[in-house]
Amino acid sequence: MRTRRDVLATAGALGAGLLAGCTSSGDGGGGESGGSTTTRDLLDVDVPDDPDVETVDSLPTPVRGDPDAAVTVQAFEDYACPHCATYSTEVVPRLVESYIEPGEVRYEHHDFPLPVSEEWSWAAANAARAVQDALDDAAFFEYTATLFAHQDAYVGAGATGYDYLGTVADDLGADATAVVRAAKGGAYDPVIEADFETGREMGVQGTPTVFVDGEKTGDPGYDAISSAIDDARSA
């Protein structure tokens, strides 16, 4: 099993030469964050910075829509990538309305920590997987959407960022302390690393990257993805 350090080294090499999207630590590709500041009251989640955790080696791929749909959409994202925040807030809701809720596609989330932030790309991914593990895929996608909508509430926010991860988890019915412990301790690193390897083998070099039935879309915008889905449905 490759370690987080191995993933970081590979991700740094992949970032060279890419023209758009998030590509490496601290590199948002010139875009603005899609997150918006939240002023909500946060829980004070008391977890040490390097907690002892039991690592989880495998977890099912988060899926929404009809799991048996004829067309599969795979999205590779980094929780600290501002382009991923824009994709989540502007593109995904349209895909949900047009294709996911009607059951036309199987939509999968895959983690691909470039990392844009060596801390938060991993911490937020671990928190989201902890929510999935404790609750279900629906809660995972709701949690993920909330994080991307308020990305600046955790990226670079220090201890307050972890309080935010825990507060959003608590809102959904997950144990805030357990989620923050997973985020700080890397409990789901093996799951995230496996996703990264899948993406690397498929040719992912930046985030967000979207595939429709295994074919990479030209860009992660709604029109390109919609066109690819329609082509796949009519094939």
Question: What does this protein look like?
Answer:
This protein has 235 residues and is an alpha+beta fold. The chain has a single domain, classed as Glutaredoxin. 46% of the residues lie in helices and 10% in strands. It has eight helices and five strands. A five-stranded mixed β-sheet has the order 1-3-2-4-5. A hairpin with a 2-residue loop joins strand 4 and strand 5. The longest helix has 19 residues. The chain is globular, with a radius of gyration of 17 Å. The N and C termini lie far apart (38 Å). InterPro entries: Thioredoxin-like_fold (IPR012336), Thioredoxin-like_sf (IPR036249). It comes from Halarchaeum rubridurum. Keywords: Disulfide bond, Electron transport, Isomerase, Oxidoreductase, Redox-active center, Signal, Transport. This is Protein-disulfide isomerase. Pfam families: Thioredoxin_4 (PF13462).
Reconstruct the topology from this structure:
Elements: H1 4-14, E1 63-65, E2 71-77, H2 82-100, E3 105-111, H3 120-134, H4 137-149, H5 159-172, H6 176-185, H7 189-202, E4 209-212, E5 215-216, H8 222-234
Parallel strand pairs: 2-3
Antiparallel strand pairs: 1-3, 2-4, 4-5
Helix pairs in contact: 2-4, 3-4, 3-5, 3-6, 4-5, 5-6
Give me some keywords for this one.
235 residues, alpha+beta, 46% helix, globular, Protein-disulfide isomerase, disulfide bond, redox-active center
Radius of gyration: 17 Å
Pick out the low-confidence regions: 12-19, 28-35
Overall pLDDT score: 90
How would you name the oligomeric state of the polypeptide chains in this document? single chain
